[in-house]
Amino acid sequence: MTALAEFRAVGFAYPASAKYRARPFRLANLSFAIAPGEIVGVIGPNSSGKTTLIRLLTRVLEPGEGEIALEGKRLRDWGRAALARRIAVVPQGVSRDFPFTVEELVLMGRYPHAPGRYFENPADVRAARAAMDATGVLDLAPLALASLGGGETQRAIIARALAQEPRLLVLDEPTAHLDLRYQAETAALLRRLNRQRGLTVLLVSHDLNLAAEVADRLLLLADGRVARLGAPAEVLDEALIASVYGCAVRVDADAGTGPPRVRLLYDRGVAGRV
Known about the structure:
Number of strands: 13
Number of helices: 9
Distance between the termini: 35 Å
Strand content: 25-35%
Oligomer: single chain
Radius of gyration: 19 Å
Number of domains: 2
C-alpha cells in the first residue's frame, strides 16, 4: 500500500540569527510514513521539531535535505491549491476576534476547490453544512465566531478544515486551551472522523495521554530527531520518556486494552499528568 505521506531522510535548519545563535535548531534525518486511514500522534518536548514538521508537510518550509512525498508524488511537485485539497490544517490558538459567522468561516475551507471563484456554489454549501454537522456546530451556523466558547470555536475550526474535503487532517495542539470536557469531546470527534470517514490524522500534542488515547502510532521527537516510532505502549516507555523530557515519570499500563497512562512524579511524592 502506498503511504499517504512520507518523510524520506528529511533535514532542515533555520538560518542563523541573533535570537537562535546560542541554540541553533536542526531537524535531521527524519524518516517516517503515514498510512491511509491511520492516526499518528507527534509528541516531544518544546523545540523538538513538532511545529517544523507541520510546516514542512504543508510547504510553509522546504526541506534542506531529503524529500517529502504525498500519495507517492514529491511534495514540491504539488500545486498549492491541489495540496490544500488533500491536506487541511487546524492551527493552534485561533483567535475568536474574527468578524464572520460560523458558516462563513467554514465556507472558507472551500477556497482550494475553486481558488479563482469569489462566491460559493450549492456544492460548497452542501460540503460546509456536512462538515458542520459532523463536528456538531450546524446549529451554530448563523452565530458570530466571537460569541462562541473555546470548545465551540475549536469544532468550528475543525469544520472549516473538513470542508476542504482533505485526505489528511493535521492538528497542532487541538486541546491546548480547552477544559476537560472539550478535550474529551475533541478526542471523541477525531476518533469518529477517522472511523466513519477513514480520515487520516496527524495529531501534534504536548498531552502524552491524549495522543496515546487517540493515535494508532506515536512519533517521539527529541532535539530534531526521531527518538522512537511505534505503538503507544512501545513509545511511552518510562526510561525513554524520562530521558527525553528530563523528568521522572510513571507509566501505568492498562490491565485491559486501553492505552498506557503517563504520570509526572514530583519530589514531594504527589503525582501529576504529563
